[in-house]
TrEMBL record:
Residues 15-106 form the Rhodanese domain. Pfam families: Rhodanese. This is Rhodanese-like domain-containing protein. It comes from Streptomyces triculaminicus. Coiled coil: none annotated.
């Protein structure tokens, strides 16, 4: 689904556990709670660490980008789309993820929380 901004967007409810998720929040946010299996590259390090994404993203698969509420992930999604990649911003971010009852784990693997 594409909204007026022209940035592809996906709802949390449309994602399955098999979908590739890129979390662009900062380290403290990640450590407090994140979606299990997500790749973590903070937005502040994104351009420098772009190679990690290209190594780990599924070939030809969509990259679902998430942050706390959707602002930072929208910027990263726009960048990825400009690079010709299939990317979508996760609408509402980790706040909606957690509210929807999706699992959130901390850095040590125990149940986490979104900060």
């Amino acid at each position: 689904m594409v909204f007026g901004s022209g940035i592809p967007t996906v709802g949390v409810d449309a994602l399955s556990s098999d979908d590739f998720l890129l979390d662009v929040r900062e380290d403290d946010e990640w450590q407090a709670g994140h979606a299990e299996g997500a790749l973590h590259i903070p937005m502040s390090d994104f351009v420098a660490r772009f190679g990690e994404l290209t190594e780990k993203a599924p070939e030809g698969g969509r990259i679902n980008v998430i942050c706390r509420a959707g602002g930072r992930s929208a910027q990263v999604t726009a960048y990825l789309v400009q690079q010709g990649m299939d990317a979508a911003n996760v609408d509402g971010g980790m706040q909606v993820w957690e509210a929807a009852g999706r699992p959130v784990v901390s850095a040590d693997g125990t149940p986490g929380t979104v900060i």
